[in-house]
Amino acid sequence: FYLVDLPGYGFANVPQKVKDDWAELIDTYLNYRENLIGVVQIIDSRHKPTKDDKMMVEWLQASGLSYLIVATKVDKISNNKKAKQKKLIYKELSLTREDNFTFFSAQSGEGSKDVYEYLDFLMQLAKDRG
């Protein structure tokens, strides 16, 4: 079982050429990695999902892979804004109840149980595959 952190995109402060190279690397990895069993997509709960976030979710929904969308830094927003952001995220990313989604805060621990349970699920899938 390998947990792989792919390069970020969106708010990364790097030249466009670097972002383009990352996009190609990510595309190749996701499309041709035969033993890939799941994806955790991390988005920032404080902002509207980016076009890259949307493209990734569309790909995940079409891929047949298991995935979890994690909206981080939830401790930085109020409960009122959190409810609004959840509606916005679901709308912008065309999510349904069937999509795995959680808010997450490294500071408060909110959502950590959901992430651990999902990773445990992936480890079991990997074990079952041999």
Would you give an account of this structure?
This protein is α/β, with parallel strands linked by helices and 130 residues long. The protein has one domain: Rossmann fold, CATH 3.40.50.300. Helix content is 48%, strand content 13%. It is built from four helices and three strands; from the N terminus they run αβαβαβα. It has helices at residues 16-32, 51-63, 79-92, 112-129, and strands spanning 38-44, 66-72, 101-103. The protein has a three-stranded parallel beta sheet, with helices on both faces. Helix 3 links the parallel strand 2 and strand 3 (101-103). The radius of gyration is 15 Å and the shape is globular. The termini are close together.
